[in-house]
Amino acid sequence: MAGKNTCMGVHAALIMTILLTATVATADDNTPIPSDHSQINTWFNNNVKPYTERQSTLDPAVATVEAGQTVIKVMQDDKGDFNTVTDAINSIPAGNTKRVIVHIGGGEYNEKITIPRNKPFVTLYGSPTNMSNLTFDGTAQKYGTVNSATVIAESNYFIATDLLIKNSSPRPDGKRVGAQAVALRVSGNNSALYNCKLVGFQDTLCDDRGNHLFKDCYIEGTVDFIWGSGKSLYLSFVHCNVTGIGSGTYLGRAWRVRPQVVYASTSMTEVVNPAGWSNDNHPERDK
Questions:
Q1: What fold does the segment set 10-286 form as a domain?
Q2: 265: left (phi > 0), else alpha (psi -120 to 50), else beta?
Q3: Tens digit of pLDDT for each residue in 185-208?
Q4: Where are the domains of the chain?
Q5: How many CB atoms neighbour CB 241 within 10 A?
Q6: What range(s) does the Pectinesterase catalytic domain occupy (predicted)?
Q7: What's the pTM?
Q8: Measured CA distances, 237 to 144, 268, 274 (Å)
Q9: Is a pLDDT exceeding 70 seen at residue 162?
Q10: Catalytic residue ranges
Q11: Which residue, 87, 139, 277, 281, has fewest beta-carbon neighbours within 10 Å?
């Protein structure tokens, strides 16, 4: 769950999936996330109120931004404003101060997408019934690991919902140099993903830095497929399912000196190594 520039080992036979059904504790009374999974939706609805009910408690910048929104449509049938997501992002002015919702129609978009740091408050919005597929085959060999991502979100307050984001590069064989291939890199602060599927092999999701939320998301990979220096709710996996087609894989490895990951109210199958964690051959990191 950490690292890059790694080789395939015992993880090679594993494709692990994690279903994240957690959310940030934004309640006025700081009510903790319940341990009973059946209470999650009630807790969420009670504590994460609609924007119209929470304006006075929001970051003033957010309250101002959400008061006025722009919607632009990306459609492959020429019925939208743009045919590609990249063109839609390019149309957003630098330093925008209003939420821009990029509505992406169904279909596969083979392009490498970057939301630059100077374009905050961007939402990529798909459809839960006809999920748009954002795909590219970038690798570390060509772009470097962190820049190999199909979607790179560098700006603050980025949101994505109902999207499949995939790196279609071949599965690493343990011999090919630079085979790491990121599907999504999130580098801005206060970002969130809802009902998204992130698919790849090695280094699928780079939570680069910042505070992020992943709710009802599916994340798939073979090794180090969640990594980075971000401080996000997935660092506390709440009400998740850890499954796969292999066995004996570690929940994570200590790629850096002070790693910290918490699993709470989470279901794990025999895919997980009973030891739980790997210190990556650095015993001093066990603490």
A1: Pectate Lyase C-like (2.160.20)
A2: left
A3: 999 999 999 999 999 999 999 999
A4: 10-286
A5: 15
A6: 73-234
A7: 0.84
A8: 28, 11, 18
A9: yes
A10: 203, 224
A11: 281
